[in-house]
Amino acid sequence: MIGLVLTALLACSDDDGSFNLQVNMVSGDEELVLGQNIDINGVTVNLDIAQFYLAGVTLDDEDDVISYADQYHIFSPTDEKNNYGDVEIDKTFDILKFFVGVEPSVNGQEEMDFTSRSTSDPLGPKDPQMHWNWNTGYKFVRLDGNVDLDDDGVAETQFRYHIGTDNLLRNVEVPIDFNFRDGINDVVIEFDLEKLFEGIDLKVDYFTMTGDNPPPAIAAANNLPNAFSKG
Ligand SMILES: [Ca+2]
User: How many Å lie between the centroid of ligand 1 and the Cα of residue 148?
Assistant: First the structure.
């Protein structure tokens, strides 16, 4: 399936439009800034790491599909914009599709495949780490910091959401209704932590590495499709 949509991309590579995707991480109306307190559904959290794998990007409309399926990027508040290359211009694409995570064929790679990757490869070794080991695979979403459990305004207790494993890859569709033109096109979407943690009590479930505490990791992964919207 991936091979088929790639062909569509190659067929329209002789135009002058370039496509950037920007993901703004927010919590409701607040922009997420690393190292600063942020309110997530009434709980104060202070994150120093907030990043995730986004791949399988596809622009879709009724009669055309452009896919950037081979591109993986790690998005974070310090690396919120990535370029995907050429795009068909003078055309409106209704829907942006992608997934959060790493597809099973890559997530299940052998140790040598992983360690031979360059550190500049989004799927290569990272600091902070975006993988557990070659057996467990990649951390699809990584949020690290502290949470304020006693409501004194100081986040004092270690907060960790490391979401991964094949079963927790989630597909996302964002209506963008974006008209691509000559030059650089910035498609801006939001990733809302209040929606990611909807229905999760962050004063109870504030620590999961997925395998050690699956329920909150599953709950957050299930919220991923609703956590993204047009910026
Ligand atoms: Ca506190």
Answer: 4
